[in-house]
Amino acid sequence: MSNLHPFPASQATPPSLPLPFDPAMAPNVRSRMLREALPEPLQRLLDCGQTGRHSRFTEDGFADVMEDWTPPDGVTPRHASLARRALAEIDDTILAPAPANHLLGRVLALLSHFPAKSTTPEVEQLLAMDWADDLGEFPAWAIDQAARQWRRTRKWRPSIAEIRALCEEACAAERALADRLRAIAAAGEQAGETGGGAVRPVLASAMRRMR
Q1: Is the pTM value of this prediction over 0.85?
Q2: Could you tell me which residues belong to the region Disordered (predicted)?
């Protein structure tokens, strides 16, 4: 479902509600529209931030490459206010966890396409509830996309980890934008506390792993 409402370009005007978002769009187009809808001061900060890359290792060895984004110098409390407003909308709407009924229904429907021969209906229900618990952090549109992609490209029953990976991929850009806005907000709020506008905090909690 598309809900496209452009924002005014004024720097002093906070973003209108709602942010433009259509999960049916190509990810790059969807991400570009969402970013361009933000106030210009936030767009400039997003463009000027620095990205660092480093390898991540687990007990099994190399896992992947992580990217950490840090906002530029000069983030102000005004920037923090704009970022918090946009972040609240992204978290509360675009990235809001799927309703329990929708999530459970989607999982049961997906598993029904790949029935397990030796599993009773009762166990199937318990399995679906495990799935719902493990996918509960994702928005409904990401779960729907992951289920659709699996149905159309695979011939076997999925694992929870496989669907989680597809969900993470589906909303990776939106999560990355949210984390960068969170980092901007943290930097601006710290600048306000210290009385300076050029504070550049390095906060682990503000970093975002991006694949």
Answers
A1: no
A2: 1-22
